[in-house]
Specification:
The protein is α/β, with parallel strands linked by helices. It folds into 2 domains: about 130 residues, Aspartate Aminotransferase, domain 1, CATH 3.90.1150; about 250 residues, Aspartate Aminotransferase, domain 2 (3-Layer(aba) Sandwich). Helix content is about 40%, strand content about 15%. The protein contains 14 helices and 17 strands. Strand 7, helix 7 and strand 8 form a beta-alpha-beta unit. The protein binds pyridoxal-5'-phosphate.
Length: about 400
Amino acid sequence: MITTKLDIETIREDFPILKRKVNGYPLVYLDNAATSQTPKQVINTIVDYYSRYNANIHRGVHSLSQEATDSYENARIKIQKHINAVQPYEIIFTSGTTDSINLVANGFTSFLKKGDELLVSAMEHHSNIVPWQMLCERTGAVLKVIPMNHEGELLTEDYAKLLSKKTKLVVCNHVSNALGTINPIERIISLAHEVDAAVLIDGAQAAPHIKIDVQELNVDFYTVSAHKICGPTGVGILYGKEEWLTKLPPYQGGGEMIAEVTFEKTTYADLPHKFEAGTPNISGGIAFGAAIDYMNSLGYDAIASYEKELLEYATEKLMAIQGLKIYGTSQHKTSVISFNVEGIHPYDIGTILDKLGIAVRTGHHCAQPVMDYFNIPGTIRASFSFYNTKDEADILVEGVKKAVQMLS
Ligand SMILES: *Cc1c(COP(=O)(O)O)cnc(C)c1O
């Protein structure tokens, strides 16, 4: 395949927000792991929906409702094709990764009994920990942790030893939001399947950087949030293998998810509607489809190679700052740099960077166990996207130097 080089200046024109000033400085947006910015192609899709065909879906006989339904279902098909799911109805629209995980955790209540085991990795986002703890409380199942090393890599040997016939489910992120590590999920999935455990992969951080093929991965459940992949907030998907989604009981009750309702008995709708109670985020779903189109118009190979260049450039420059330590040093990582400077609280550096128009995240990044592992209160996290530049990496480095000077 030919990897075309990205034309970053032209790409930046697609993102109106990048022209903004913050505190008198041009915005340098390096908080892409929290949420990505939105290109005008996606913004225009939302404007177009509300300007031309805003209507409820799957219900009306009128033309607007038909157009809205077609666009929404077309977005589902785009997402299906994008992650190579077998069927469009294996794509469940949710409000995002958190919602997708809760849907599965809730459904597993009826599958688990006391003493069953769930494995969760040491580097999960809270949204891939807490729903499973709640599930264990409901069922008496036991949560066990797949450990990691100081590079921020999962210990696959230890993982293999944790697996047994008691293991019913393994949950792990594809890419860590706190460290940027790309986890060896192919191996995690195949080992789990050897003991007949199901696997849920949290793909919130992977989808913006890596082309996903759920059939090749042979994964049972996979989650994506639109807002981290150039789409709007409040929408995402749960991919589930048809056999799993058929077994899994409905999550929420309401309109749209039923086949027939009487006061004696209600029967549920077929997939995907069984899991889509109530009026969904229609414009959001359609715009998610537009975001996928946008990402594919750039190409994942081109995105990955450019982001790698940015990662290496910024890592080298940051490492030259005295006392600076990077957390998450795996060879396999996305363009996330989590760091601290010795003797300085991450929040203080983040505050000074903001004064300079530089947006980074500081804190525990919804991954407190990761911070506990490294024995730190939090980190400064600079996360790069394909629309960032080396100039912006330089501005970050100069900003950190200035902050260190002011604070030490
Ligand atoms: C952002 C994120 C989540 C939560 O996604 P929401 O869109 O807030 O539901 C879960 N896991 C990871 C790895 C994330 O980066």
